[in-house]
Fold this protein.
Amino acid sequence: MEVQNAVIPTAEQMEGFLSPDADEPIFMVNLLKFRERAEYEDGRDSELTGCEAYQIYATGVARVIREVGGQLCFGAKVARLMLGEVEELWDEVAIAMYPSRKAMLQMIQMPEYAEISVHRSAGLAGQLNIETINASGRWLREPAE
């Protein structure tokens, strides 16, 4: 299995994402690899690490995800690889839930998302973004009050 991190989806990946067959909650598993230093497309000077730039994005995107009915479910640093092999480990894993693909598409078209996404691009060396469906398990239940 070949693994290739990316920052922007291919045309084929976007076509699959835009297909109308998933009007159910999706959980996006993000395997994140950060740049050593943030690199902004507009050329601005920055002393931020890639991780620090991405955290600016993560803080903003958490708010925008909630606006479309989703939520950030999980985030953690990668410690080691327990099983299998990959040339280079990712730095962090994050899982976000969206009520549907349509909700995620709505989010990425919001002006607020465009404003914060510059920090995502500056911070990421690449990522894998895996769409999962048909989630089940006790952990999906709302916390008891």
The beta strands are 26-34, 71-77, 92-98, 124-132. Residues 31 and 93 are 5 Å apart (CA to CA). The chain has one domain: 24-132. The chain has a mean pLDDT of 87.
